[in-house]
Amino acid sequence: MTGDPTAAPAPGVPLAAVDRELVEGVAFDSSGLVPAIVQDADGGQVLMLAYMNRDALARTIATGRTWLWSRSRQELWCKGETSGDRQYVREVRVDCDGDAVLLLVDQHGDAACHTKEWSCFHRPAARGPGVPRPDPRP
Amino acid sequence: MTGDPTAAPAPGVPLAAVDRELVEGVAFDSSGLVPAIVQDADGGQVLMLAYMNRDALARTIATGRTWLWSRSRQELWCKGETSGDRQYVREVRVDCDGDAVLLLVDQHGDAACHTKEWSCFHRPAARGPGVPRPDPRP
Predict the structure, then answer these.
(1) Model-level pTM?
(2) What is the pLDDT of residue B3?
(3) Which of B2, B10, B119, B134 would suit a FRET pair with A32, their CA atoms being 20 to 30 Å apart?
(4) DSSP strands (E only) in B31-95
(5) Which fold has domain B35-107?
């Protein structure tokens, strides 16, 4: 825990090289939300899937911290500000049709998941061998 | 292109070690859908975000191919069966609250994205340095 929950969130490093047209063009759904995948910039693990409204996206870019919209609490929150498991954002990417975003982050603290597992996606539901590519990657 | 679009999709290797309770417990939304993140099992790139209904999830596990629900076309589809950019699934993971899934796949063909970029998340919207962890990862 990081103490006073009413204190302003610890600052990150504001993002630069902002593509305003791309950001403005993000297609929020009928609830005003877009799914946001958060990925560990170092290890590559997919850490969590959460949701952003336009304000959360703007705050994320302005502060370099992960800001999200909680659908259950119906409020903006800054990831890790209560738990200490903060995320400092290195990059925001937008997908080809503009209706999903990907954050690449430095994950601080113990974990991204409230269970204290590194990733929220820690439960295997099924596994197989896959099929290796027969040819080199393009 | 892989020829006759009416042909049955090329088989993958069916997934095993299936946690039926976890699969049955996936929390589909009011539209019967759950977001599915697809990640390159080798390179670690997040390739795409799409949606599954219960049938798509069952088919994915049964066939070892990525099956999805197209919200625009309102139909099930098997990723890559028309483009040749098939995905062979190595693992399905479910997140901590059961309302998102992660697929780890062998990406075949040219790309995951219809634009022929490797990942649908190829557009940077903003970048920064992040904040490196002050301590080793747990």
Answers:
(1) 0.94
(2) 45
(3) B119
(4) 34-40, 46-52, 67-70, 75-78, 87-94
(5) Ubiquitin-like (UB roll) (3.10.20)
Check if A17 contacts B (Cβ < 8 Å): yes
Reported ipTM: the value is 0.94
Task: DSSP letter for A60, please.
Answer: H
Task: Sheet containing A87-94: give its strands across.
Answer: A46-52, A34-40, A101-107, A87-94, B123-127
Nearest to A6 by CA among A107, A60, A82: A82
Report domain extents, chain A.
29-107
Are residues B102 and A121, on separate chains, in Cβ contact within 8 Å? yes
Q: Which fold has domain A29-107?
A: Ubiquitin-like (UB roll) (3.10.20)
Mean pLDDT by 10 residues, chain B (138 residues): 58 95 98 98 98 98 97 96 95 98 97 96 97 93
Identify which of A12, A35, A131 has the shortest CB distance to residue B88: A131
How far apart, in whole angstroms, are the C-alpha atoms of residue B84 and residue B91? 21
Residues from chain A that touch B114, judged by Cβ atoms under 8 A, are 96
Contacts of B45 (CB under 8 A, 6+ apart): B39, B118, B119, B121
